[in-house]
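hey team, just a heads up i'm posting the complex here instead of the shared drive bc the drive is being weird again. everything in one block, sequence lines first with there labels, then the predicted structure for the whole assembly after. its two chains so it's a bit long, scroll down
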Amino acid sequence: MARTPADLVRAEPGPPFEITFDGRTVTALPGQSVAAALWAAGILAWRTTRHGGRPRGAFCGIGQCYDCLATVNGEPNRRACLVPARPGDAITTQEGHGHAGLAV
Amino acid sequence: MPGSPSEPYDLVVIGAGPAGLAGAATAARLGLSVAVLDAAAQVGGQYFRHPAPGLGAARPQAVHHNWAAFTGLRRRFAASGATYLAGHHVWTVTREDEAAWSVHALAGEDGGTGTGGGTRTDGSRAATGSGTGGGGTAAGRGGHEDGRAVGADRDRGGSDADADREGRTGSDADGECEGSTGAGTDGEREGRTGAGTDGEREGRTGAGIAGFRERPVRLRCRAVLLATGASERQLPFPGWTLPGVVGAGGAQAMLKSGLVLPGRRIVVAGSGPLLLAVASSLAAAGARVPAVAEASGYLGYARRPRALAANPRKLLEAAVHGTALLRHRIPLHTRSAVTRVHGTDRVEAVTLSRLDRDWRPVSGTGRRIACDALAVGHGLAPQTELATGLGCATRRTPDGTHALVLDGLQETSVPGLWAAGETGGTGGWELARVEGELAGIAVAARLRARPALTRGRRVRDLAGRRDRMRAFAHAMAAAHAPGPGWTAWLDDDTDVCRCEEVTAGSIREAVTALGARDSRTVKLFTRAGMGWCQGRMCGAAVACLAASGTARGTVPDAAERRPLAVPVPLGSLAAGPEEPGDG
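-- predicted structure starts here --
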């Protein structure tokens, strides 16, 4: 029986690379979305809601629920389940609508 | 065949799942110029979602029971000459005149996960790039009002098109995938190598108009095939917004595309055949699944023995999943539901309760199951926004969703607009593929004025298979129809609308105190359904809660209409699609 999803499909991914989540280093694989890379590191929440300040992460996994919005390289409201992870990406928890502290 | 950019495509297909691929390949083989738009980075749709090439999965079939059928379909599509535009989110379809439609899409980076296959962030990469290889053949085709894409296509137009035409002649006649293997394999190999990385980098730096990542694109065409599939239906319960609670389909999608799991001990709950498939693939991928909770019983199927007998493969599928559950020692609880999730910032446990026939929890039956994730879903709902926006008639399915009304040859109530697959009611990939092919033939028959095409044995055979599978889909929907008692799961402070954080209490107040009787009125009072997802997650629940204050009970009346199928930045609207010759 496979112990990991990668075992199951006999994956031989390209070389792993690093991204950061709120300053912490996270390893990602080529082909993974930002959400997938965060899940692989055991991180399930990267947004807080506008009203209750509650934590949220990926829910629908296919770009429809917008619960997985994250700030990626300073840009808020990116759907982490769709955005491919790239070497050096800085993911930060998005608070509320994500525009706090931005010059917009 | 269109020779200039301003000349429309014969057919634009929206969605590159089994229905869209079959429809496009069939229509292209019958001589139509065809473009396929899809939001994802790779073809396959939700069911055949698979790892991005960068993940180097040697056995993607390990998470797919019918992988060979998909690769056959993909090869056929690749060899057909249809243009493939990945990463294109279609937000509306408009009628130009009696004989022409405009399909409006946003092409953007968010359309693509993954390297390699995920390169097609703009039309030009898509049309000439990897994956299906089919794109290259469509070089220089018209109707694509996107300066960059058209320009790039033209540059390499002649040779690609010629090369493909040569390679294709042999396989064309028989219409199946034989003989086209070469093209398909090449396409895939190309997708796996470096081409992708460049594309992505390019997409990242050169993206967007005036700083917007998403670039508007407009395709003109003479017919449209809607193959937009379905999305998961969710019903709320206390704690369903905690991190670690994910859609059952979402968990499956993340596993299939990114090779990741939301936790180590994952409870699977809700209703519908998808749950068994999800539980067995999560377990195969290494998760412990301490329980699967199905809110219905399976006796519902037995009430329609004829539909069962006519679809032996469906029984086989169920048996395969059942065996997988046994092998992984996963207990299946029927007439049960997760009625509460415990945890402060993430899932720590769930309460599993027995349900009565109406899905009302039986008091005193709740028991706590420790887990770190919950995968939940209550069946699939057809994605019909684009169609209802154009006035297509819908029907209510036995499980309370709304599907498009279609004629015997897959045409909607609006002439010139066809649909195939889940848009006509959830029925699975095989039904989708059959309906796609039927639609492809029907469109070709109409546009080429060759009605004889629809009278052949092939069409009779396809229609027979479709009707048989539709009968099963009907039985399946009836067996998993949500019972009206599910609303008893809700506390007044349960968030129903995830985006706007609107609680069940405030929705009930809008119904009982303020007199709201439908989702729209509830939305105006409470903002439920007004957030980012536009009611996709809470729509079914809000409609039930609104209708619960009426004599109709908890059955909502009509499919919701929304003018835009995906959120569109105002800047993209203002900029308008790039016109031919720009750039």
